[in-house]
Amino acid sequence: MTSPPTQDVEMQRLLEGYRQFRETYFEGNKPHALYQKLVEEGQNPKTMVIACSDSRVDPSIILGSLPGELFVVRNVANLVPPYDNDPKHHGTSAALEFAVQTLGVRHIILLGHSHCGGIRALLTKSDTEMTPKNPSFISSWMNIANAAKTKTLTHFEQAPLELQEKMCEEYSLKISLNNLLTFPWIHEKVTDATLALHAWRFDLGTGMIQGFHTERQTFEDLIV
Ligand SMILES: [Zn+2]
């Protein structure tokens, strides 16, 4: 099936959204000024966001951005793998390379969130390696944050699952932050102060974002 099932309620809702998008940014088939500029001059985003695929955590909605403002990668649990130049398929690393080396973004935001299913799976499941008997892409991918699980269970073994998840989400963000610095061209630009890294955690229950303060080593409200 390649054409949209237009009787489908969910699809109708999306098509209505598409209609509204076209009314906002296009006149018939002609772009308004914003898309005209983006077509003629190309994209020039200053910020890359690495967010979770979770449907509740859309960076463009949370940050109120316009088309062309954010270069976005979304993956399970907003993880960044360490730099690795093996010939495997590195989607997130490829996007990082394009954003940093070609687009020259000035900021990379890791946008984590509360109630993250990937983090919950990491905390509650025993297998973290993909094996022929356990062919799970999620388990293998979440292995990037395995040290966050170990740290959480070491320091918060008796804590309620909700607190464990929060801590694991924060530890995981710090792992990805460190992994970003294993990419030589990211490390170089951060050292030159031409690129800034940010680790944020969005709380679904309060709508608040807390950002990691590298000097104080704490997550603090972005706006008060
Ligand atoms: Zn998530």
The CATH class of the largest domain: Alpha Beta
Characterize the largest beta sheet: strand count, sense, and whether it forms a barrel. Answer: 6 strands, mixed
Ranges where pLDDT stays below 50 over 5 or more residues in a row are none
Strand order of the largest sheet: 4-3-5-6-7-8
Taking Cα atoms only, what radius of gyration do you get, to the nearest Å? 19 Å
* Distance between the amino and carboxyl termini: 49 Å
Mean pLDDT: 94
So what's the overall shape? globular
Count the E strands: 8
Secondary-structure class? alpha/beta
> Number of folding domains?
2
Helix residue percentage: 40-55%
Q: What order do the helices and strands follow? A: HEEHEHEHEHHHHHEEE
Question: What is the strand and helix layout of this fold?
Answer:
Blueprint: H1 9-25, E1 26-27, E2 30-31, H2 33-41, E3 47-52, H3 59-62, E4 70-75, H4 91-103, E5 107-113, H5 117-124, H6 137-142, H7 146-155, H8 161-180, H9 184-191, E6 196-202, E7 209-213, E8 218-221
The chain binds zinc ion (ZN).
Explain this structure to me?
The chain is of the alpha/beta class. It contains 9 helices and 8 strands. The protein has helices at residues 9-25, 33-41, 59-62, 91-103, 117-124, 137-142, 146-155, 161-180, 184-191, and strands at 26-27, 30-31, 47-52, 70-75, 107-113, 196-202, 209-213, 218-221. Strand 3 (47-52), helix 3 and strand 4 form a beta-alpha-beta unit. The radius of gyration is 19 Å and the shape is globular. The chain binds zinc ion.
Main attributes of the structure:
two-stranded antiparallel sheet, binds zinc ion, 6-stranded mixed sheet, 9 helices, globular, alpha/beta, 224 residues, 8 strands, Beta-carbonic Anhydrase, Chain A
